[in-house]
Amino acid sequence: AAGALGLAVITPAHAGNDRPVVDRLQLALDAVQTATNSVWIDADRVYIAGMSGGGRLASMLWAGAPDVFTGALGIVGLNSHHQIPTGKGTVWPPSHRLPAGDLARRLRPHPIAAITGPRDFNFVESRQRITQLKREGFEARLFDLPRLAHEMPDAGTIRDALIWIDRPVQQQRSEAGARADTILDRIPPEVLENPE
């Protein structure tokens, strides 16, 4: 799914739910820095994804580090800064706060998606969190799969979610290409024939 979009996938080892949350958050940040030190990374296309508890962490880093991550995908798990009623007299608590200042401005256009289904025990919570994010004007989308339980979806669904997350970057690049073509069209032919 990622390869079809020209995305590389980096996964930290031993980063499961048995590790402290703060360690797992740091591993994700370290993974980006390690990759950046080794190869050219397109800073506009650094997305974070995870499944279950990893999806919850991905959504936390999406909100907390918008200077690093420009989109997020929570698969059968999603957190947010909202207190969400469960409908049973309790609430799902917020897991984090939104950043302030420049980080808040940077976060606003970054897309976040959730993949879940009615058979997933996190379905109602994920759906409600996406709904709240959309109400606040965030680019948020729910990919609701009728047969999905608490499991990985098929590669096609992940690809579709990544395409949706990646679309703002692709649109900006298309518009920039069109502007460049317009500028190049204005260059007199004699300049192009004689580069000196």
Structure at a glance:
The protein is an alpha/beta fold and 196 residues long. The protein has helices spanning 21-38, 53-64, 101-107, 123-135, 155-185, 189-193, and strands at residues 47-51, 71-75, 84-85, 91-92, 112-116, 140-144.
Spans of at least 5 consecutive residues whose pLDDT stays below 50 are none
Query: What is the ordering of alpha helices and beta strands?
Result: HEHEEEHEHEHH
Give the strand tally: 6
Question: Which percent range describes the beta-strand content?
Answer: 5-15%
In DSSP terms, counting alpha (H) and pi (I) runs of 4 or more, how many helices?
6
Structural class call reads alpha/beta
The CA-CA distance between the termini, in Å, is 46 Å
**Overall mean pLDDT score?**
94
Largest sheet: 4 strands, parallel
Cα radius of gyration in angstroms: 20 Å
The helix content, as a percent range, equals 40-55%
Question: Widest sheet: strand order?
Answer: 1-2-5-6
Overall, the morphology is elongated
Structure write-up:
The chain is of the alpha/beta class and 196 residues long. It contains six helices and six strands. The chain is elongated.
